[in-house]
C-alpha cells in the first residue's frame, strides 16, 4: 500500500455523487429492483449464520445413531457456515468486480438456495456439513455483489438502505432462527436447524431475477477492475482462511483460553489491516469505512445473538419484538444520514460508536438479568448506532474501499463469536452447573464479561475510525462525482 505514496493520490473509484435528479425516470425501475434485492438478499444471507443444532442435538443423535464423538462432529459440521462465508466474501468481491455483479449474485444466491433446499435430505454428518458450508459459500459470494449493484446506482439512499438492512439483519437473525428451532427442540425436526427459514432465500432469488430483468435501465458501469484494486481485495483472503480454519479447529477441541487468545490476536490483526488501508487512496475512505465494518461485524451479531438465547423463555413472539425494534432503529438510523452534509459525517460515525457504547452499558444493567421486555432498552441504541456508523462511513467511499471493509466485517463477526463463546464456556467449566438455573447464570456471567470487552473495543474502534478517516487524502473534501 505504500506504493501509492510516491505519486499524487487518485480519487477513490466510483464514490457516491450527490443524490440523483428525481427527474431521471428511466432508472427508477432499476433502483426499485435494487432496493427490493437489498431488502430480501441481506436478511437471507444473515439467516444462514445462526447455528441452532445444539437445540436438536438429542433428536439428531438418535435419528443418525451417533455416539458422543459423532454428536461433537455434527456440531462442528453445522458450524461450517460462518467459516465458509468468511472465506467466500473476498472471492465474491473480486468476482463481483471482475464479472457482471448480477451473475455473481445469482450464482451465490443459487448456491445458498440449493443448500437450504438440500437441508431436509441430509442424512449424515458429512452431508449436514456440506449443506451448511454451501449456504455459507453462497452467502459469501452474493453479499459483495449486492454492494456492487448498489454502488452502480450511485445513490446515497440505496447505500443507506444497504447499510441499515445489513445491521438490522445481523441483529434479528438469531432470534428468528430460535423461533424456528427453540431450545429443547419441542418436537422440531432436526433438519430444521440446518436451514431454519427457507423462504427468505427463495425471495432473494426472485428479487435477483427482477434485478437482472431491469439491467436495460441500469446506471453506467463502474470503472474497470484495476490491478491494484484486485490485489487489495484478495489481501484479506489469507487471514480470513486462517481464521476460518482455526475457528473450526478451536471450537470444540481447544480450551476457552486458547480460543480467546486466537480471537484477541485476530482482532489485533484485523485492526492492523484496517489501519494500514486507512490512508491509502484505494483501500481507505474519508470516514473510516474499514474500521466501521469491523464495528458492525464485531458488535452486531456477536452481541445480539447470545442475548437472544439468554432471553428465550419458550414464547413464540415475545423475545422477537425487542430485536425487531432494534432492527427498525438500525434502518432508521442509516436513513437519517442521507441528508447529512459531508462535514458532519465523521461526527456521525463517532456518534454511532457512542450509541453502541451506551447500548453495552444498558445491556450490562438490564439485559439477561430482568424481564425480557427490558431487552429493548439496549437494542434500540445498538441498532441505531450500527446503522448510523455503517451508513455514514460508507458515504463518499469508493467501491474498492467498501468491498475491502466488507471483507473484514465477517472475520470480525467470527472473532466476536469466538470471544463470547469462549468466555461463556470458561464460566461453565469453572462453575460446573448442575441445574438449568445455574447454567443460565453461568452463561449470563460469561456474556456480561463479553459486554465489558465489547464496550472497550467499541471505544478503541471509534478512535481507529477517526484516525483512518483523518489520514485519507479525500478527508478534507467530498469525493468527486463519478462520470
Structure commentary:
This protein is mainly α and 483 residues long. It has a single domain (27-471), classed as MFS general substrate transporter like domains (Growth Hormone, Chain: A), CATH 1.20.1250. 70% of the residues lie in helices and 0% in strands. It is built from 18 helices and no strands. The protein starts with 27 loop residues before the first helix and ends in a 12-residue tail after the last helix. The model is unreliable at 1-14, 17-23 and 475-483 (pLDDT under 50).
**Tally of individual helices:** 18
The CATH architecture name reads Up-down Bundle
What's the helical proportion of residues? 55-70%
Identify the CATH class. Mainly Alpha
| Gross morphology | globular
Beta-strand residue fraction:
under 5%
Order of helices and strands: HHHHHHHHHHHHHHHHHH
Distance between the termini: 26 Å
Secondary structure: number of strands: 0
Q: Helix/strand-derived class? A: mainly alpha
Mean pLDDT over the full residue set: 84
